[in-house]
């Protein structure tokens, strides 16, 4: 099976089912975290809408199923299929831009990194974003990818229009004025509604962020968590299991001040900061965590080293450079969206669990927050949300800890992030979402024969 040979921008001439393997490499697809590997019947890498439609037509004619893939950065098996894996990453770049409305339309496989650079060139920015830029926009919104900040929308909520190639051969554009129910479904789409060809994002004027990072006592912070989250533009904290302090990050939006007050970092200080992020704050932390996992008796000494690696610092830079950090070390993750008011209690129980069972992680637990969302299947649908995320170096054991943590999160009304490791199925998921049936109705209208389903999405949706 071969990759399509059509020139970018031109329709595929030959059957896309004869295409050669995509960039995922030869005939095997592997997730970023390394926890998922699959050898599909074929990997295709369409470069334009015509080729996407051709893939869907050919698959339907041959009785094969299709799963779209972005950057493979989900940890749950949303992508794996034994049939056709449609690597959408070549479907990328700027489609159009309306600087007056501050709206940009990009192809579905465009990465967040590419989008940030396009926007920077036009004096624009994303209002809020995740802590990493490797995801594609279609893949990110599929799972409700979020950042932090109670007053700023996730990526899914920043979308005003989505164009999908559907299994029934249509190209449909949905927005608030045309197929609004489809837009609400597609805001968090799990890759089961169609192949996302392009999305339009409502952007904001470029702005700068001031970041203050510091260490503080855990107990005091947890006691006033909701207040602290609501008092900052963007609030997050990191907690290494076993420690009595946390590392807090508060980001303040500086866009109303003139340049003289909010000068971005010089190239040198920016380079030093990125090195600090990559080496001291990510790799060293995870390296020490791995050592601690292998030799638990060394934990007190390693924790002292870890705390030295995360000193206080303050800096200002262009927004996306502050929102994100390099992720040199691969990990696997679980994350739950909790009602904001239950987040502190859930976190305290998680800490008790760690104290009792002695679980260790290679990365700190990360706690963030987000506002209510409209997407039918958004984990933040209809409520202010606190997010608790656990990340473990993939070669270390994680199943038992993740499972025990999941139990706590569920007891507090948590909903799993769709892109992470969790054990929920339709039976438990359906009661969590008031628009569950609305999502299913849109799905069955767009894909009545389940061309886009795999085992995992069937299990999730009860199909
Ligand atoms: C280092 C790292 C940091 C992360 N940080 C965050 C974070 O800060 N916040 C957060 O919420 N999550 C975070 N995540 C999770 C990540 O954002 C999500 O799992 C996201 O969905 C991954 O996007 P992707 O492009 O890799 O898509 P994939 O993982 O490849 O696919 C995800 C889903 O999108 C579908 N899909 C992809 N492209 C298309 C398309 N063109 N049309 C239709 N369906 C499509 C797939 O079928 C699948 O269902 C992080 C993950 C990693 C590895």
Model description:
This protein is an alpha+beta fold. Among the domains are: 94-205, Uridine Diphospho-n-acetylenolpyruvylglucosamine Reductase, domain 3 (2-Layer Sandwich); 208-416, 3-Layer(aba) Sandwich (Vanillyl-alcohol Oxidase, Chain A, domain 3), CATH 3.40.462.10. The protein has helices at 49-62, 112-121, 137-143, 180-186, 218-223, 225-230, 267-294, 299-309, 319-323, 340-357, 399-411, 426-429, 436-446, 455-461, and strands spanning 29-30, 37-38, 42-44, 66-69, 84-87, 94-98, 103-107, 124-125, 159-165, 171-175, 195-202, 204-205, 208-217, 234-239, 245-253, 313-318, 331-339, 365-370, 385-393, 415-416. The strands form five sheets. It has an eight-stranded antiparallel beta sheet with strand order 16-13-15-14-18-19-17-20. A five-stranded antiparallel beta sheet has the order 6-7-11-9-10. A hairpin with a 6-residue loop joins strand 1 and strand 2. Mean pLDDT is 88; it is low at 1-16 and 18-23. It binds flavin-adenine dinucleotide. Flavin-adenine dinucleotide binds next to strand 4, helix 3 and strand 11.
Radius of gyration, CA atoms, in whole angstroms: 22 Å
Mean pLDDT: 88
The major beta sheet can be summarized as: 8 strands, antiparallel
- Report, as a whole number of angstroms, the end-to-end distance: 29 Å
The level 1 CATH classification of the domain at 208-416 is: Alpha Beta
- How is the largest sheet built, in terms of strand order? 16-13-15-14-18-19-17-20
Helix content: 25-40%
- Based on secondary structure, the structural category is alpha+beta
CATH architecture of the domain at 208-416: 3-Layer(aba) Sandwich
Q: Tell me the number of strands.
A: 20
Q: What small ligands are held by the chains?
A: flavin-adenine dinucleotide
Q: Which overall shape is indicated by the principal axes computed on the Cα atoms?
A: globular
Relative strand content: 15-25%
Low-confidence stretches: 1-16, 18-23
